[in-house]
TrEMBL record:
PROSITE patterns: PDZ. Keywords: Hydrolase, Protease, Serine protease. Residues 287-341 form the PDZ domain. It comes from the Bacteria. It comes from Rhodocyclus tenuis (Rhodospirillum tenue). Belongs to the peptidase S1C family. InterPro entries: Chloro_Bact_Ser_Proteases (IPR051201), PDZ (IPR001478), PDZ_6 (IPR041489), PDZ_sf (IPR036034), Peptidase_S1_PA (IPR009003), Peptidase_S1C (IPR001940). This is Serine protease DegQ.
Length: 387
């Protein structure tokens, strides 16, 4: 009986296994089959703003232009022509000329033809041509420039024979003061002359200064790719509004290393408006040379901290000289605003209206001194000029 039971059980299990493999439906088991489509179905929903910046591109790209410059360059005469015997056989030859070309970018800031770009893009150029996003080209002239912020304003004119007024796609200015570290930004320009390009990054830092690029520095730092040819182009937010003018990069190879600098739109707008209205930028000036107060200097002077700017020199006949400011004085405040370092001093003085009387707070021989100075007009200086 036990043998018959064991054999019957074994045969039953074998049949169950065979049926479960060959015909699982007979015993109520179903395989779950999932069909995987070859491609995801097309969605009629628009791409979200977090995934695409197409609207910002559509808004800002038409307002960014390519700037092509050229200038005459004299070719040096071969020294062999200084030899009279050589000249006897080959004749007299004069110095030749050639034209050097440059490229950059610019931003249309008004529909009637004003364009904002970098000063170094158009510096020394005798011919300037602007190419729009739609392929049309215009001759441009320099309305004015400000080497100390590396900004220039161009204006294009209608082509010869055109009777209608220009209606260019002007960009919208954003609020640079609302920009924060971590915000997404887009850089637009003409890198290496390959054509209009947009790159994406974030705001890496704000208020970058002491870089030795310009006299007045307050840069937006970004990791959006900026390369040669991007200079003068736009740095925009995710709505396509202008928040900066791309101006410089930190690079050891000439290409982008993720450290780019842009002039805030608020600074660019202020400079642009002064150039358009007056042909130049007017800034305050008192005629002092300042030096940073290091920890060692603070200790040697017996100062409680390193705030302020040490007056290293006073220009003879300047407003500071007339007010009795001396080398060795420490400037602490201008018009009630604290001076933290020489760059802050320069910015505060430049922001004063020429002809106005401003209170300067000084530390002299451990005593606090208040002095009134009549601010003068800052002389026109070359790029990276001093105070």
């Amino acid at each position: 009986m036990w043998l018959i039971f064991a054999q019957t059980t074994t045969v039953g299990l074998a049949l169950y296994f065979l049926v479960s493999v060959v015909q699982p439906d007979w015993i109520g088991q179903r395989r779950q089959i999932v069909e995987v489509p070859a491609s995801a179905p097309a969605s009629s929903e628009p791409v979200s703003a977090a995934a695409s910046y197409r609207e910002a591109a559509r808004t800002a790209l038409p307002s960014v232009v390519h700037v092509f410059t050229s200038q005459k360059v004299k070719l040096p005469k071969n020294p062999l022509f200084d030899d009279p015997i050589f000249r006897h056989f080959f004749g007299e030859r004069q110095e030749g000329e050639t034209r050097s070309a440059g490229l950059g970018s610019g931003v249309i800031v008004s529909s009637d033809g004003y364009i904002l770009t970098n000063y170094h893009v158009v510096e020394a150029a005798d011919q300037i041509e602007v190419a729009l996003n739609d392929g049309s080209t215009f001759r441009a002239r320099v309305v004015g420039s400000d080497p100390e912020t590396d900004l220039a304003v161009l204006r294009v004119s209608p082509v010869k024979g055109q009777t209608t007024e220009l209606r260019l796609p002007a960009i919208t200015f954003g609020r640079a003061e609302d920009v924060r570290v971590g915000d997404v930004v887009l850089a637009i320009g003409n890198p290496f002359g390959v054509g209009q390009t947009m790159t994406m990054g974030i705001v890496s830092a704000l208020g970058r200064s002491h870089l030795g690029i310009n006299t007045f520095e307050n840069f937006i730092q970004t990791d959006a790719a900026i390369n040669p040819g991007n200079s003068g182009g736009a740095l925009v937010d995710t709505q396509g509004a202008l928040i900066g003018i791309n101006t410089a990069i930190y690079s050891r190879s000439g290409g982008s290393l993720g450290i780019g600098f842009a002039i805030p739109a608020s600074t660019a707008k202020n400079v642009m408006e002064q150039i358009i209205q007056n042909g130049a930028v007017t800034r305050g000036w008192v005629g002092v040379e300042a030096q940073e107060i290091t920890a060692e200097l603070a200790e040697s002077f017996g100062l409680p901290d390193a705030d302020g700017a040490l007056i290293a020199g006073v220009q003879r006949g300047s407003p500071a000289d007339a007010a009795g400011i001396r080398p060795g004085d420490i400037l602490l405040a201008i018009a009630g605003q604290a001076v933290k370092d020489p760059q802050a001093m320069l910015d505060l003085i430049a922001g004063q209206q020429p002809g106005s009387s401003i209170a300067f707070k000084l530390r002299r021989d451990k005593n606090l001194v208040d002095v009134k100075i009549k601010v003068g007009k800052r002389p026109v200086a070359s790029r990276r000029g001093g105070d």
